[in-house]
Specification:
Largest sheet: 10 strands, antiparallel, barrel
Distance between the termini: 46 Å
Number of helices: 3
CATH architecture of the largest domain: Beta Barrel
Mean pLDDT: 88
Structural class: alpha+beta
Shape: globular
Radius of gyration: 21 Å
Number of strands: 14
CATH class of the largest domain: Mainly Beta
Length: 231
Protein backbone atom coordinates (compact mmCIF):
# COMPACT_ATOMS: atom_id res chain seq x y z
CA UNK A 1 0.00 0.00 0.00
CA UNK A 2 2.81 2.38 0.87
CA UNK A 3 4.47 1.63 -2.48
CA UNK A 4 1.23 2.35 -4.37
CA UNK A 5 0.75 5.54 -2.39
CA UNK A 6 4.27 6.68 -3.28
CA UNK A 7 3.67 5.91 -6.95
CA UNK A 8 0.44 7.93 -6.85
CA UNK A 9 2.17 10.83 -5.12
CA UNK A 10 4.98 10.80 -7.69
CA UNK A 11 2.51 10.78 -10.59
CA UNK A 12 0.58 13.68 -9.04
CA UNK A 13 3.76 15.74 -8.57
CA UNK A 14 4.90 15.00 -12.13
CA UNK A 15 1.49 16.02 -13.48
CA UNK A 16 1.52 19.28 -11.51
CA UNK A 17 5.08 20.11 -12.64
CA UNK A 18 4.22 19.35 -16.23
CA UNK A 19 1.12 21.53 -16.00
CA UNK A 20 3.14 24.42 -14.56
CA UNK A 21 5.74 24.08 -17.32
CA UNK A 22 3.08 24.06 -20.04
CA UNK A 23 1.44 27.15 -18.55
CA UNK A 24 4.81 28.94 -18.54
CA UNK A 25 5.37 27.97 -22.18
CA UNK A 26 1.90 29.26 -23.13
CA UNK A 27 2.55 32.50 -21.26
CA UNK A 28 5.90 33.03 -22.99
CA UNK A 29 4.40 32.26 -26.39
CA UNK A 30 1.61 34.79 -25.81
CA UNK A 31 4.05 37.48 -24.68
CA UNK A 32 6.28 36.81 -27.69
CA UNK A 33 3.51 38.31 -29.81
CA UNK A 34 4.49 41.62 -28.19
CA UNK A 35 8.21 41.14 -28.81
CA UNK A 36 8.37 44.36 -30.85
CA UNK A 37 7.63 46.28 -27.64
CA UNK A 38 11.00 45.17 -26.20
CA UNK A 39 13.72 47.80 -26.33
CA UNK A 40 14.37 51.42 -25.42
CA UNK A 41 12.23 54.20 -26.82
CA UNK A 42 12.32 57.98 -27.00
CA UNK A 43 8.81 59.35 -26.81
CA UNK A 44 6.66 62.45 -26.72
CA UNK A 45 3.19 62.66 -25.23
CA UNK A 46 0.29 65.03 -25.66
CA UNK A 47 -3.46 65.37 -25.98
CA UNK A 48 -5.39 62.77 -27.95
CA UNK A 49 -8.20 64.08 -30.10
CA UNK A 50 -9.94 67.22 -28.94
CA UNK A 51 -8.56 67.13 -25.42
CA UNK A 52 -6.78 70.47 -24.89
CA UNK A 53 -6.10 70.14 -21.14
CA UNK A 54 -3.30 67.59 -21.45
CA UNK A 55 0.21 69.15 -21.70
CA UNK A 56 2.98 68.10 -24.11
CA UNK A 57 5.94 66.27 -22.60
CA UNK A 58 8.90 63.98 -23.39
CA UNK A 59 9.53 60.59 -21.82
CA UNK A 60 11.62 57.46 -22.24
CA UNK A 61 10.20 53.94 -22.31
CA UNK A 62 11.98 50.64 -21.77
CA UNK A 63 10.40 47.23 -22.25
CA UNK A 64 12.31 44.11 -21.14
CA UNK A 65 11.68 40.45 -20.36
CA UNK A 66 11.56 39.16 -16.78
CA UNK A 67 12.08 35.49 -15.92
CA UNK A 68 11.50 34.28 -12.36
CA UNK A 69 11.26 30.52 -12.01
CA UNK A 70 8.30 29.47 -14.17
CA UNK A 71 6.89 33.01 -14.22
CA UNK A 72 7.39 35.09 -17.35
CA UNK A 73 6.45 38.74 -17.85
CA UNK A 74 7.36 41.92 -19.68
CA UNK A 75 8.52 44.91 -17.62
CA UNK A 76 7.81 48.49 -18.66
CA UNK A 77 9.78 51.42 -17.21
CA UNK A 78 8.90 55.02 -18.01
CA UNK A 79 11.17 57.96 -17.29
CA UNK A 80 9.74 61.47 -17.23
CA UNK A 81 6.15 60.34 -17.77
CA UNK A 82 3.27 62.64 -16.80
CA UNK A 83 0.86 59.82 -15.97
CA UNK A 84 2.60 56.44 -15.72
CA UNK A 85 5.87 55.26 -14.16
CA UNK A 86 5.76 51.74 -15.60
CA UNK A 87 4.26 48.35 -14.99
CA UNK A 88 4.45 44.57 -15.43
CA UNK A 89 2.61 42.77 -18.22
CA UNK A 90 1.63 39.10 -17.81
CA UNK A 91 -0.45 36.62 -19.74
CA UNK A 92 -3.13 34.84 -17.69
CA UNK A 93 -3.34 31.38 -19.24
CA UNK A 94 -6.56 30.39 -17.45
CA UNK A 95 -8.38 33.53 -18.57
CA UNK A 96 -6.57 33.74 -21.91
CA UNK A 97 -6.05 37.43 -21.30
CA UNK A 98 -3.22 39.90 -20.78
CA UNK A 99 -2.89 41.79 -17.50
CA UNK A 100 -0.90 44.97 -16.98
CA UNK A 101 -0.18 45.99 -13.39
CA UNK A 102 0.57 49.63 -14.15
CA UNK A 103 1.98 52.13 -11.65
CA UNK A 104 0.97 55.77 -12.02
CA UNK A 105 3.13 58.76 -11.03
CA UNK A 106 1.49 58.79 -7.59
CA UNK A 107 2.61 55.21 -6.98
CA UNK A 108 -0.90 53.79 -7.25
CA UNK A 109 -1.37 50.36 -8.83
CA UNK A 110 -3.80 50.25 -11.77
CA UNK A 111 -4.75 46.79 -13.06
CA UNK A 112 -5.75 46.58 -16.73
CA UNK A 113 -6.80 43.38 -18.52
CA UNK A 114 -7.57 42.68 -22.15
CA UNK A 115 -6.75 41.03 -25.45
CA UNK A 116 -4.24 41.26 -28.29
CA UNK A 117 -5.95 41.22 -31.68
CA UNK A 118 -5.07 42.58 -35.12
CA UNK A 119 -1.64 43.65 -33.81
CA UNK A 120 -3.20 45.88 -31.13
CA UNK A 121 -3.16 45.29 -27.35
CA UNK A 122 -6.35 46.67 -25.78
CA UNK A 123 -6.55 46.74 -21.98
CA UNK A 124 -9.34 48.05 -19.75
CA UNK A 125 -10.12 48.70 -16.08
CA UNK A 126 -12.95 50.15 -14.00
CA UNK A 127 -12.04 53.00 -11.71
CA UNK A 128 -14.14 52.23 -8.62
CA UNK A 129 -13.79 55.77 -7.29
CA UNK A 130 -15.54 57.35 -10.26
CA UNK A 131 -17.18 54.35 -11.98
CA UNK A 132 -15.22 55.48 -15.04
CA UNK A 133 -14.02 52.87 -17.51
CA UNK A 134 -10.42 53.40 -18.59
CA UNK A 135 -8.60 51.95 -21.57
CA UNK A 136 -4.96 51.60 -22.64
CA UNK A 137 -4.31 50.78 -26.28
CA UNK A 138 -0.78 49.80 -27.35
CA UNK A 139 0.74 48.89 -30.70
CA UNK A 140 3.83 49.17 -32.85
CA UNK A 141 4.12 50.57 -36.38
CA UNK A 142 6.66 51.05 -39.17
CA UNK A 143 7.92 47.45 -38.83
CA UNK A 144 8.55 47.78 -35.10
CA UNK A 145 10.39 51.10 -35.20
CA UNK A 146 7.45 53.06 -33.79
CA UNK A 147 5.56 52.35 -30.53
CA UNK A 148 2.36 54.08 -29.47
CA UNK A 149 0.07 53.93 -26.47
CA UNK A 150 -3.16 55.77 -25.89
CA UNK A 151 -5.21 56.36 -22.76
CA UNK A 152 -8.97 56.68 -23.17
CA UNK A 153 -11.93 56.87 -20.82
CA UNK A 154 -15.69 56.37 -20.82
CA UNK A 155 -17.60 58.17 -18.10
CA UNK A 156 -20.29 56.40 -16.08
CA UNK A 157 -23.24 55.44 -18.25
CA UNK A 158 -21.40 55.95 -21.54
CA UNK A 159 -20.30 53.20 -23.90
CA UNK A 160 -17.89 55.05 -26.19
CA UNK A 161 -14.32 55.83 -25.13
CA UNK A 162 -12.88 59.28 -25.73
CA UNK A 163 -9.16 59.96 -26.07
CA UNK A 164 -7.29 61.64 -23.22
CA UNK A 165 -3.61 61.41 -24.17
CA UNK A 166 -1.34 59.67 -26.64
CA UNK A 167 2.37 58.80 -26.42
CA UNK A 168 4.33 58.22 -29.63
CA UNK A 169 7.84 56.76 -29.54
CA UNK A 170 10.73 55.82 -31.81
CA UNK A 171 13.06 52.95 -30.92
CA UNK A 172 16.56 54.09 -30.02
CA UNK A 173 19.18 53.28 -32.64
CA UNK A 174 16.56 52.86 -35.37
CA UNK A 175 15.42 55.16 -38.15
CA UNK A 176 12.32 55.07 -40.32
CA UNK A 177 12.88 53.35 -43.64
CA UNK A 178 16.14 51.71 -42.54
CA UNK A 179 16.36 48.02 -43.42
CA UNK A 180 18.88 45.89 -41.59
CA UNK A 181 19.43 42.25 -40.71
CA UNK A 182 18.07 41.29 -37.31
CA UNK A 183 20.01 38.97 -35.01
CA UNK A 184 17.78 36.59 -33.05
CA UNK A 185 17.64 36.66 -29.26
CA UNK A 186 18.72 33.28 -27.86
CA UNK A 187 16.16 33.56 -25.03
CA UNK A 188 13.01 35.19 -26.42
CA UNK A 189 13.44 34.84 -30.18
CA UNK A 190 13.18 38.60 -30.70
CA UNK A 191 15.63 40.96 -32.36
CA UNK A 192 19.00 40.70 -30.61
CA UNK A 193 20.67 43.99 -29.77
CA UNK A 194 23.50 42.92 -27.42
CA UNK A 195 25.85 39.95 -27.16
CA UNK A 196 26.44 37.30 -24.49
CA UNK A 197 29.04 34.54 -24.52
CA UNK A 198 29.35 31.02 -23.15
CA UNK A 199 32.29 28.64 -23.60
CA UNK A 200 33.65 30.60 -26.54
CA UNK A 201 30.31 30.93 -28.36
CA UNK A 202 28.63 34.30 -28.83
CA UNK A 203 24.86 34.78 -28.91
CA UNK A 204 22.50 37.72 -29.04
CA UNK A 205 19.86 38.86 -26.53
CA UNK A 206 17.22 41.59 -26.88
CA UNK A 207 17.24 43.13 -23.40
CA UNK A 208 18.84 43.07 -19.96
CA UNK A 209 16.16 40.66 -18.69
CA UNK A 210 17.10 38.09 -21.34
CA UNK A 211 20.80 38.65 -20.61
CA UNK A 212 20.21 37.86 -16.92
CA UNK A 213 18.16 34.76 -17.78
CA UNK A 214 20.89 33.53 -20.14
CA UNK A 215 23.64 34.01 -17.56
CA UNK A 216 21.62 32.00 -15.02
CA UNK A 217 21.05 28.92 -17.22
CA UNK A 218 23.01 29.29 -20.49
CA UNK A 219 22.99 25.57 -21.34
CA UNK A 220 19.18 25.50 -21.27
CA UNK A 221 18.69 28.41 -23.65
CA UNK A 222 21.51 27.39 -26.00
CA UNK A 223 20.07 23.86 -26.32
CA UNK A 224 16.57 25.22 -27.02
CA UNK A 225 17.94 27.77 -29.50
CA UNK A 226 20.00 25.23 -31.46
CA UNK A 227 17.13 22.71 -31.48
CA UNK A 228 14.83 25.35 -32.94
CA UNK A 229 17.42 26.27 -35.57
CA UNK A 230 17.67 22.63 -36.69
CA UNK A 231 13.93 22.54 -37.33
Amino acid sequence: MRFLALIGFYCLCSSLCQGTSLAADDSKEALQKLQEFVGQWKASGGPDGRNKVVPIWSETIEWSWKFKGDEVSLMMKIGGGKYLKGGELRYLTEKKAYQLDAIDIKGEKLVFTGKFAKDILTLERLDKKSDERQQLVMNTAAEGIRFLYRFKKAEEGRTLFTGVYIVQATKEGESLGAAQKKNECVVSGGAGTMTVSFKGETFYVCCSGCADAFKETPEKYIAEFKAKKKK
